[in-house]
């Protein structure tokens, strides 16, 4: 066997992530590698923390990227804040609420589940009832933007309810950061984590996190060691701490951090509210085209995440066959359903650099063609015009 260099095909990524990476970010990642304690790199780290504060809309001093994907950001929040015996209210309306439950239990905590139907936002009334029934609860954990369904929950209201019952909040913002309104300080969120491969249009492998002073106080008062050495914030902050001084903790993914820095610079150049508006506008165009074809959204409009669109697969259509044809003939990737929605929905992403008119038109035109070939019960030849009308307006 002859081993050769790997050269992947050029794809258009319109699934649930990763999203298309801005060429500026790929160029940034190709720059010379320097030491992770080099003064120049340390200065970039400080700048990145300020850029992340802007993205999260927070002044939290502990705002940084974890050197691992979004799942490690989730684990960072749970292993630092949940101690053995702690009771945690966990909201589940999709796959990722279930992963929160796993984290609580692995930390030795007790998860009290608040369950909503997949495709619906978390019901604040159910959370209130769970907190009244469990006055000893310490934390409320929920997913702001549920990637498995495209549902967006009311983070501000859920956090207010948690605080009324003297609970901290842990929030999953993996799919919302940079794509939909998220205001950590205004909403008083205590611990939040995200990923780089969604609306920031960076490569996978880093997880931005932010912790409030309330959360840090709980960490300082722990009666037991954080169960993960690598994710223990007491140790990590020796490396990501302030005043330009850095103690060695781990070798940071230097070139990946160049990429995240560039992604955040791009976000700052566009303006956060402009980025939110761009995602909303192109979602409306995609929505118009999909609905003109006769495809139905899983999530009600008022709870729908603009950057992740879950649509029902038409009756009699082979899910995998359509996605395979899109990939083969159009080099276009859309996502399959997860969990109870497997085989029932497609998840179409409009995230970050991939959120543009060209991709809206490509997706609608390709779906129209492929669904026509399999004689799916949809309206043909109408999707592009419907989307164009929205974008022109």
Automatic annotation (TrEMBL):
Q: Which residues carry this modification: N6-(pyridoxal phosphate)lysine?
A: 198
Q: Which cofactor does it need?
A: pyridoxal 5'-phosphate
Sorted keywords for this record are: Aminotransferase, Pyridoxal phosphate, Transferase
Its domain of life?
Answer: Bacteria
Q: Which Pfam families match?
A: Aminotran_5 (PF00266)
Question: Which residue intervals make up region (Disordered)?
Answer: 1-20
Give the residues the record marks as binding substrate.
347
Name the GO terms of the biological process aspect.
Answer: glycine biosynthetic process, by transamination of glyoxylate
InterPro entries for this protein: Aminotrans_V_dom, Aminotrans_V_PyrdxlP_BS, PyrdxlP-dep_Trfase, PyrdxlP-dep_Trfase_major, PyrdxlP-dep_Trfase_small, SP_NH2Trfase/AEP_transaminase
SUPFAM superfamilies, per database record = PLP-dependent transferases (SSF53383)
Q: What molecular functions are annotated in GO for this chain?
A: alanine-glyoxylate transaminase activity; L-serine-pyruvate transaminase activity
Residues in Aminotransferase class V domain copies: 36-338
Q: Which family does it belong to?
A: Belongs to the class-V pyridoxal-phosphate-dependent aminotransferase family.
Identify the PANTHER family for this entry: ALANINE--GLYOXYLATE AMINOTRANSFERASE, AMINOTRANSFERASE CLASS V
Name of this chain's protein: Alanine--glyoxylate aminotransferase
Q: Which organism is it from?
A: Candidatus Tenderia electrophaga
Taxonomic classification = Bacteria, Pseudomonadati, Pseudomonadota, Gammaproteobacteria, Candidatus Tenderiales
